[in-house]
């Protein structure tokens, strides 16, 4: 019963955080590992749990989705799908003990990226209008998608940062494309994980409900939050605490 309550609470809070600021993986992944789900399966299940939130976000931004830079939208979507598949396959062949060694480093990287997100985006937007070549653009999208297929934490800010490198300047368009690519690569990843039997369905069934409810409430309340910087600090603190716990255990 305690494990059930923990999973519901973690998924609900993860849904709220993902809807408002991001960083829900900092709660959902550790909760799954804590209740005994094997690390690789926990990571796959956490990606599955985050998918409904990505879909709702993409729908909300559906009118803003557009490509800038040197690559068209079909090419970007195709690269994202390919990268998501490669990342998922990489996770499947990663031994559990190796992934447990990698997890704290992934959490650390995601926490640093999340904390530095606003500064990083401001830095990249100083060069508005400048774009890298099509080959380099394709390499960036593919690399970020591989990361997202392997580990979902911090995916949003990594995608936004990559769009800045590609020369994007329309923030609404960036958020729309971020949501779309998150859906594409996560769907490919989840289908791969389902085929490989990595989804912990018993835990996932409970957490999807909590995540969807949290996402709905978070989206409804997000406009009322005045100090989003404090929320970002809170998410960063949660990520830092989870990172430390995984390093010392």
UniProtKB/TrEMBL annotation:
Compartments it resides in: Cell membrane
Domain of life: Bacteria
Main location: membrane
Recorded topology in the membrane: Multi-pass membrane protein
Family to which the UniProt record says this protein belongs: Belongs to the 4-toluene sulfonate uptake permease (TSUP) (TC 2.A.102) family.
Keyword Transport: yes
Alphabetical list of PANTHER family matching this protein: MEMBRANE TRANSPORTER PROTEIN YFCA-RELATED, TRANSMEMBRANE PROTEIN YFCA
Transport among keywords: yes
InterPro entries (UniProt xref): TM_pro_TauE-like, TSUP
This protein's UniProt keywords: Cell membrane, Membrane, Transmembrane, Transmembrane helix, Transport
GO cellular component: plasma membrane
Transmembrane segments: 31-51, 71-92, 98-120, 180-198, 231-248
Protein name, UniProt field: Probable membrane transporter protein
């Amino acid at each position: 019963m305690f494990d059930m309550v923990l999973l519901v609470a973690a998924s609900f809070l993860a849904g709220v955080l993902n809807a408002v600021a991001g960083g829900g993986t900092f709660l959902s992944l550790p909760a799954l590992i804590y209740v005994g789900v094997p690390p690789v399966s926990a990571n796959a299940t956490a990606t599955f749990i985050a998918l409904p939130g990505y879909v709702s976000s993409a729908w909300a931004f559906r009118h803003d989705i557009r490509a800038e830079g040197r690559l068209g939208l079909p090419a970007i979507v195709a690269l994202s799908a390919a990268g998501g598949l490669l990342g998922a396959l990489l996770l499947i062949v990663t031994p559990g003990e190796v992934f447990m060694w990698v997890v704290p480093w992934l959490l650390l990287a995601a926490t640093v990226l999340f904390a530095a997100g606003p500064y990083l985006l401001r830095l990249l937007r100083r060069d508005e209008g400048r774009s890298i070549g099509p080959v380099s653009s394709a390499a960036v999208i593919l690399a970020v998608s591989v990361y997202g297929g392997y580990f979902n934490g911090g995916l949003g800010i990594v995608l936004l940062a990559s769009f800045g490198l590609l020369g994007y300047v329309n923030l609404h368009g960036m958020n729309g494309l971020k949501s779309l690519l998150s859906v594409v690569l996560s769907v490919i990843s989840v289908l791969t994980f389902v085929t490989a039997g990595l989804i912990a369905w018993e835990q996932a069934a409970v957490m999807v409900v909590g995540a969807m409810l949290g996402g709905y409430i978070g989206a409804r309340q997000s406009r009322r939050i005045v100090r989003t910087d404090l929320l970002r600090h809170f998410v960063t603190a949660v990520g830092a605490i989870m990172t430390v716990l995984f390093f010392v255990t």
